[in-house]
Specification:
Layout: E1 3-7, H1 11-16, H2 19-30, E2 33-37, H3 46-50, H4 54-73, E3 79-81, H5 84-90, H6 93-96, H7 104-113, E4 114-116, H8 117-120, E5 135-138, H9 142-147, H10 153-160, E6 164-165, H11 181-184, H12 186-201, E7 207-210, H13 213-220, E8 227-229
Parallel strand pairs: 1-2, 1-3, 3-4, 5-6, 5-7, 7-8
């Protein structure tokens, strides 16, 4: 395709939920956009950043910039990040590397080109896959609605495609995953998950959709219905 974008596959996404990245590539392919995972790019640095391992986080950021930069110079339109937790991190590269003279300018450019899937597909009317449930609840991750300020974007896409979105009480609250929080603070994280699942399941959805792998895995561990990344709902495979 003449239009080309780069994919941040993500270390967690590829390890725990490979269908998401493949679904994103197929959906964009049908719209005439090639989505390319670049060898050499890997972890966005968010986990290290959350844990205060700043040197390691910066090393991950520099590695990604080095991997992506030749493709950006060759005309790639954007860096597409299916996981909103990774997306908010990459969009912050410009600030996080502002004091690095070797990377500051490129980091800012990468941050400016980074897009969530909801931004890439904002003007599209997508067709749901034939076998997916239509009565769903959407969990809007904190990193999507607060970090990237994209609240309502995915919901609009889903409604436009004909999905029935059930109301979710206190949708602005965290599900408890919160990066490494689910691992390092389980006593605080688990009650947040219970509260979030009560709200998501209250209307009797057939499926919960979300936009971040951390939230997805955290909720799926206790959910009575499947929890999927929303892009998979448009992938007929």
């Amino acid at each position: 395709h003449p239009r080309r974008m780069l994919l941040l596959a993500g270390c967690v996404h590829d390890a725990l939920d490979p269908p998401t990245n493949a679904a994103a590539a197929r959906v964009l392919d049908r719209l005439g956009i090639s989505l390319q995972a670049v060898p050499g790019a890997g972890c966005c640095g968010a986990i290290s950043h959350h844990l205060g391992a700043e040197a390691q986080a910066r090393a991950f950021m520099r590695r990604n910039i080095d991997a992506w930069w030749p493709h950006i110079e060759a005309g790639a339109e954007a860096v597409v990040v299916p996981a909103s937790g990774c997306g908010v991190q990459v969009k912050d590269y410009g600030r996080l590397l502002a004091d690095d003279p070797a990377y500051a300018e490129r980091a800012l450019r990468i941050a400016d080109l980074t897009r969530d899937l909801a931004e890439v597909l904002a003007d599209e009317t997508l067709t749901p896959a034939p076998d997916v449930p239509r009565r769903i609840a959407f969990q809007s991750p904190c990193t999507l609605q607060h970090g990237q300020r994209l609240g309502g974007r995915v919901e609009a896409l889903l409604r436009r495609a004909g999905f029935e979105l059930l109301p979710v009480a206190d949708g602005h609250l965290c599900c408890g995953a919160a990066g490494t929080y689910a691992l390092t603070q389980p006593a605080l994280s688990e009650p947040l998950r219970e509260r979030k699942l009560d709200a998501l399941l209250a209307g009797g959805p057939q499926l919960i959709a979300t936009a971040n792998i951390g939230c997805q895995m955290h909720l799926q561990a206790r959910s009575s219905v499947p929890v999927r990344h929303w892009i998979e709902l448009f992938d007929p495979r």
